[in-house]
Amino acid sequence: APTPPDDDGAPLGEQGPCLERLRAALCQHCGLVPSDFEPRFDMVYDGVQTVTKRGKEEYLLPDKGWTKLALSVSDRYEDADWLRRRSWPVVYHGTSAQSAVVSGIVRDGFKIR
Question: What pTM value is reported for the model?
Answer without folding.
Answer: 0.71
